[in-house]
């Protein structure tokens, strides 16, 4: 889905007519090395192209044998450009007698959602306000500058150090939301500029990898809360989530940890360790194993800058301690904000739903306020963000009433919670999943 092409021979369908296919035929091509997708009724053989796809090979693979039209539109801001690159992959189209939507998708809902997107585009909801992002970047840099000045003028006492750590953790969290904007191509019109600035923000301001983030995060958006497709619900056997996985683990007598207590040990191995331990290891392993040397250089520039600034005051050992304390606080912030809209929602295997229905069962919103907007990087509008990932976040509030109206029309549940209620639901959902696991483990 986008950005380049590879010549493929035209394939004759089993119906004997070159270049026309039924959904049944398309759905046979889902395995690695043999993958077809449908975009706007045209059939594409992406079997070899997946290896070169800028968004990663897995995201296309997740749509193999399916209609990927809605995902294609959602992820690519310049559709005309991408369609040019897709031409060499074109092998035909759906038969005239075939519906535009595969499986049991509601065609009327899909068309109404398409019309909604067109309306929002016409109203300017996909246009960026540059000043918003300039000010956001400025406040991150200001927080970092104030932190350094505090150490310079007031020394390394405990109280001052704690204040500095809080300011730097805030800067890191806010930089995380900012890199998210560039990663989703929602700031500049040209994707190239979004990619370049993304590497700077996530690399030099945060010490992480743009390619690693793209690989994980786009899969999450493509198939949120879908086992084996969304990496964010791969809990490495430390947690069981949703209602389906706990039963599977219980029936198979899998007990890597006492899952009926996972809502308790979550506080010790979830928020504190995700960024400073799990992500830290993943990022460097990914960069080195895949030869992402540009990302590695950006990442190193962050560490050089940090240690040049703080070792002169704290020395190497205490600078390392300060660094990890900052990561520790940032990790709590990140986990609670990102999981409040997903973990309590439906988590299951692939159901092949339309874009709107798939995103709404996996996401919910948090009440709007100036604080919630800033604190969550506007991810309190998680529904709108998932439906329109390239929309600048300062416009989510404009799209929200229209999305809610469409959901009401088709009986799709649009959930909105308080910030505290959403945090509490994370723990409650883990407790419920643990109880389901224990029941299956003991009785099935």
TrEMBL record:
GO biological process entries: unsaturated fatty acid biosynthetic process
Record flagged with keyword Plastid: no
Subcellular location: Membrane
Assigned keywords, A-Z: Fatty acid biosynthesis, Fatty acid metabolism, Lipid biosynthesis, Lipid metabolism, Membrane, Oxidoreductase, Transmembrane, Transmembrane helix
Gene Ontology terms for molecular function: oxidoreductase activity, acting on paired donors, with oxidation of a pair of donors resulting in the reduction of molecular oxygen to two molecules of water
CDD domains: Delta6-FADS-like
Species this chain originates from: Onychostoma macrolepis
Any Gene Ontology CC annotation: membrane
Stretch list, region Disordered: 1-20
Repressor as UniProt keyword: no
Lineage of producing organism: Eukaryota, Metazoa, Chordata, Craniata, Vertebrata
The protein's name: Cytochrome b5 heme-binding domain-containing protein
Pfam families: Cyt-b5 (PF00173), FA_desaturase (PF00487)
Residues spanning the membrane: 131-152, 265-283, 303-326
Biased composition (Polar residues): 7-20
């Amino acid at each position: 889905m986008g950005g380049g092409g590879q010549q493929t021979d035209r394939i004759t369908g089993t119906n004997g007519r070159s270049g026309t296919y039924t959904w049944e035929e398309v759905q046979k091509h889902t395995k690695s090395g043999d993958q077809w997708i449908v975009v706007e009724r045209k059939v594409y053989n992406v079997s070899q192209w997946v290896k070169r796809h800028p968004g990663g090979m897995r995201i296309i693979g997740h749509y193999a044998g399916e209609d990927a039209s809605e995902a294609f539109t959602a992820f690519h801001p310049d559709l005309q450009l991408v369609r040019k690159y897709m031409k060499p992959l074109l092998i035909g189209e759906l038969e005239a007698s075939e519906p535009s939507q595969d499986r049991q998708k509601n065609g009327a809902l899909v068309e109404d959602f398409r019309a909604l997107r067109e309306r929002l585009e016409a109203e300017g909801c996909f246009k960026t306000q540059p000043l918003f992002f300039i000010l956001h970047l400025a406040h991150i840099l200001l927080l970092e500058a104030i932190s350094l000045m505090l150490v310079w003028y007031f020394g390394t006492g405990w109280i001052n150090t704690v204040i500095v750590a809080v300011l730097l953790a805030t800067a890191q969290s806010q930089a995380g939301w900012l890199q998210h904007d560039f990663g989703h191509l929602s700031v500049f019109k040209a994707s190239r500029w979004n990619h370049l600035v993304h590497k700077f923000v996530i690399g030099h301001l945060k010490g992480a990898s743009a390619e690693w983030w793209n690989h994980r995060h786009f899969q999450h958006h493509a198939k949120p809360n879908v086992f084996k497709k969304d990496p964010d619900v791969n809990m490495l056997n430390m947690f069981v989530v949703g209602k389906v996985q706990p039963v599977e683990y219980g029936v198979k007598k899998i007990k890597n940890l006492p899952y009926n207590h996972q809502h308790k040990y979550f506080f010790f191995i979830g928020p504190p360790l995700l960024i400073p331990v799990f992500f830290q290891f993943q990022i460097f392993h990914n960069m080195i194993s895949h030869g992402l040397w540009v990302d590695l250089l950006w990442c190193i520039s962050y560490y050089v800058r940090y240690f040049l600034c703080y070792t002169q005051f704290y020395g190497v050992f205490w600078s390392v301690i300060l660094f990890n304390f900052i990561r520790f606080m940032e990790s709590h912030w990140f986990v609670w904000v990102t999981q409040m809209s997903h973990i309590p929602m439906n988590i299951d295997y692939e159901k092949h739903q339309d874009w709107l229905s798939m995103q709404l069962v996996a996401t919910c919103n948090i009440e709007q306020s100036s604080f919630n907007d800033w604190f969550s990087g506007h991810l309190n509008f998680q529904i709108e963000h998932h439906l329109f990932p390239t929309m600048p976040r300062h416009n989510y509030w404009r799209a929200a009433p229209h999305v809610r109206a469409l959901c009401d029309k088709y009986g799709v549940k649009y959930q909105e919670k308080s910030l505290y209620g959403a945090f509490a639901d994370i723990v409650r959902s883990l407790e419920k999943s643990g109880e389901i696991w224990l029941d299956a483990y003991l009785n099935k």
